[in-house]
Design goal:
Elements (H helix, E strand, L loop, with lengths): L1 E6 L3 H11 L4 E7 L5 H9 L4 E2 L12 E4 L4 H10 L5 E3 L1 H34 L3 E6 L4 E4 L1 H7 L3 H4 L4 H4 L5 H7 L3 E7 L5 E10 L5 E10 H27 L3 E6 L4 E4 L1 H7 L3 H4 L8 E3 L3 H8 L3 E8 L4 E12 L2 E11 H21 L13 H14 L5 E4 L6 H11 L7 E5 L5 H9 L17 H4 L4 E5 L6 H13 L1 E2 L8 E2 L3 E6 L3 H7 L4 H7 L2 E4 L10 H16 L5 E2 L1 H8 L6 H15 L6 E2 L31 H19 L4 H8 L3 H11 L2
Parallel strand pairs: 1-2, 1-4, 2-3, 4-5, 17-22, 17-23, 18-19, 19-22, 24-25
Antiparallel strand pairs: 6-7, 6-10, 8-9, 9-10, 11-12, 11-16, 13-14, 14-15, 15-16, 20-21
């Protein structure tokens, strides 16, 4: 051990004292200070080192090294003159350099100790066990997770051979083969199953200096592998969905740089992945501001923004939403819609709606209101006719609901998924009626469209056609219609080739076809073709018990049309309406209720007597025409007319006797109910 004396109790001497005191190589004999520096002398006394006020007093001892930290040349020369020849004198400048070197050494040591402490912290907090051995197989590192896996404390493992802790270890084999082993299964003596990865440790000279092993619980490893597999499947599925979507999709990160686009995005904008991925979100903008950047700034979604994008300046509508994970903004996703495609779809939708409005059957039997005997029979007949392809003839006064029945028959038939065409024969001029019904070929007449025109019957092929007001058809059209019903084919105006069709004909009329036949205005053979399934719909005056149900249904309908909220109608109002004969039938009833609702105050919710127009009370109930029945022979009147008048009187008396029950009346008279309705229609009973 080197004996040392330090001369100078200032900062330099104190630093040297501190460094040499921590070393086992040096023994400080004394500390001298000619100026009596309190700091250096006090530090020496705390370490129990002798102190002297004059350096010469310390020369009495056998010294190996003297440190002169005073920086005074005269002191240095005096010490050099008086010291032993074997003693080494180190001047202050050298002492200063040594001090710096010692300080640097201490800093490096502290740095290594801190790094080692951090490494130990990392290794001990990881869930995987870690074991490191040297080239002889002795354990030099053993973390907390390895302790839990092996039931062995670190202090008991460090320095022991690996075979003592893990008898079946493969670390020695890994060092011998210099080849790593990945995801190997091992079973410890305590029964725990582990998955281990073993890797040899090689230095810069490619020499084996040891090996380390990473241990993981097998159950946890299997669960982690399953989770990774599930995540990969989800990722693959999401990518497939995004890539196959017809919607243009773009995704950016939280800095607004492109992350992902799909083929639909390239199709609409004209920009490829190389032009977008990793580039600013504004790269695709031609007109407008970047909605991605706006969403990233506000963290709020935007909807329906019109923009122009890409080199083609495509007009689009953009929806963008933020991507937020665990409360943190990760980016944004945008969906781009091509305006031209939307406009085309809107046009097609409007066109489809127009076709549906003209061709669709809107009503079903649920829309036919009425529980009276007068309505049950025609409803049952209509349901029966819907199950057959037979031609139907709907008869009844104007406003009784003949078209409603036609809709219901079509919707209940097996043709309900095909077209339903409505034709009002009285609303089309006679000059156009034939070409409208049957169509025409190109050049059939002046002004004909190029390529010809399809008629209503061809449009309704495989479906149904309603011929309303069929009694108004001119004679030449009646002849062609008869051929359609007989031969199931048409010939266009100006054409010669028959066109086969399969159409269900539903005819409707409010005139007496029998009288029209007698007068010669309607063909008898066409009548027999149309009259295969006749259905008589009673007027409202003959089924007044349906008034309340009809009124409530119509009030609901008018509420929707006018935006009102009328809740119902009082019994007094119904009674007031029952004294009226309703020559306009249900159509007139709807008119009266609509007028009442229009003039009702906004705070009124129930239709009462005062809301019903008073004019219906001033119209007396039409009495049965007893005057038309003669008491005997009247000169100048034909026998058939007299018999008809008498028959009408008998039928009316029978109806009165049975209180309007048509079934009992027909049974009492010995005729069918259908025949009874026919005669009532004929005699206007």
């Amino acid at each position: 051990m080197q004996k040392v004396m330090i001369v100078g109790g200032g900062v330099g001497g104190t630093t040297v004292l501190k460094l040499l005191s921590e070393s086992e190589v040096f023994s400080i004999v004394c500390m001298a200070d000619t100026n009596g520096s309190a700091e250096g002398m006090l530090a020496a006394k705390e370490r129990r080192i002798p102190t002297v006020t004059n350096w010469s007093k310390g020369l009495d001892g056998d010294l190996d090294i003297i440190f002169d930290t005073t920086g005074d040349p005269s002191v240095y020369n005096e010490i050099k003159r008086d010291m032993h020849d074997q003693t080494i004198l180190i001047p202050g400048s050298v002492a200063h350099i040594m001090t710096k070197l010692f300080e640097e050494k201490n800093r490096l040591i502290n740095k290594l100790e801190n790094a080692s402490a951090k490494m130990d912290l990392i290794l001990n907090t990881t869930s995987e066990g870690m074991v490191v051995i040297d080239q002889d197989g002795f354990i030099i590192m053993f973390n907390d997770s390895a302790e839990r896996a092996s039931d062995t404390k670190r202090v008991d493992a460090i320095g022991r051979h690996i075979k003592d802790i893990f008898p079946t270890t493969g670390l020695l084999r890994v060092m011998e083969m210099n080849k790593k082993e990945v995801n190997q299964e091992i079973t410890l003596s305590n029964g725990m199953e582990l998955i281990t990865t073993r890797i040899p440790l090689v230095n810069a000279d490619k020499e084996i200096i040891g090996a380390f092993s990473v241990l993981r619980n097998k159950t946890e490893a299997v669960q982690l592998a399953e989770q990774i597999t599930d995540l990969k499947e989800i990722q693959t599925m999401l990518q497939a969905i995004i890539q196959s979507s017809d919607e243009a999709i773009s995704v950016v990160d939280d800095q607004g740089r492109g992350l992902l686009i799909n083929p639909a995005y390239t199709r609409i904008t004209g920009l490829t992945k190389n032009q977008v991925i990793g580039k600013p979100a504004s790269i695709d903008i031609y007109e407008g501001e970047s909605m991605h950047m706006k969403v990233l700034q506000t963290k709020k979604p935007v909807r329906g923004v019109n923009m122009r994008v890409g080199p083609k300046h495509k007009e689009v509508i953009v929806n963008v939403a933020p991507i937020i994970v665990d409360g943190c903004l990760k980016g944004s996703v945008g969906v781009i819609h091509d305006v031209s495609e939307i406009q085309a779809l809107t046009h097609e939708l409007n066109r489809a709606r127009q076709i549906i409005r003209t061709l669709q059957a809107k009503y079903s039997f649920d829309d036919i209101i009425g529980a009276s005997e007068e309505m049950k029979l025609p409803i049952e007949q209509a349901k029966l006719s819907a199950r057959t392809p037979a031609t139907v003839l709907l008869r009844g006064e104007s406003g009784t609901g003949k078209e409603l029945f036609a809709h219901a028959i079509h919707n209940a038939s097996d043709r309900r998924f095909n077209k339903f065409v409505r034709v009002n024969c009285a609303a089309i001029s006679e000059a156009l009626l034939e070409s409208e019904l049957f169509g025409y070929d190109e050049g059939a007449f002046t002004g004909a469209s190029r390529g010809g025109k399809v008629g209503f019957f061809e449009e309704a092929n495989q479906g149904s056609i309603l011929l309303d007001e069929i009694g108004e058809l001119p004679a030449n059209i009646q002849a062609k219609l008869l051929r359609v019903l007989q031969e199931r084919e048409i010939i266009r105006v100006g054409g010669t080739k028959p066109i086969p069709i399969n159409v269900r004909v539903i005819a409707a009329t409010n005139i007496n076809l029998e009288q029209a036949i007698a007068s010669g205005s309607f063909r008898e053979d066409l009548y027999f073709r149309l009259n295969r399934m006749p259905i008589f719909i009673s007027p409202l005056r003959k089924r007044k018990e349906d008034l309340r149900e009809l009124a409530e249904h119509l009030i609901h309908k008018i509420n929707q049309e006018y935006g009102r909220s009328i809740e119902g109608i009082t019994a007094e109002a119904i009674h007031k309406m029952q004294i009226y004969n309703w020559p306009g039938n249900v159509r007139e009833l709807e008119n009266i209720l609509g007028r009442a609702i229009i003039f009702m105050k906004l705070n009124e919710t129930i239709i009462d007597v005062q809301h019903i127009p008073d004019f219906i009370e001033s119209i007396p109930i039409i009495q049965e025409k007893d005057s038309m029945v003669p008491s005997g022979y009247v000169s100048g009147r034909p026998l058939s007319e007299i018999i008809d008048q008498y028959e009408a009187k008998i039928i009316q008396q029978a109806i009165n006797t049975h209180k309007g029950n048509k079934t009992l009346t027909a049974k009492a008279l010995g005729i069918s109910v259908r025949n009874l309705y026919y005669k009532m229609e004929k005699f206007e009973l």
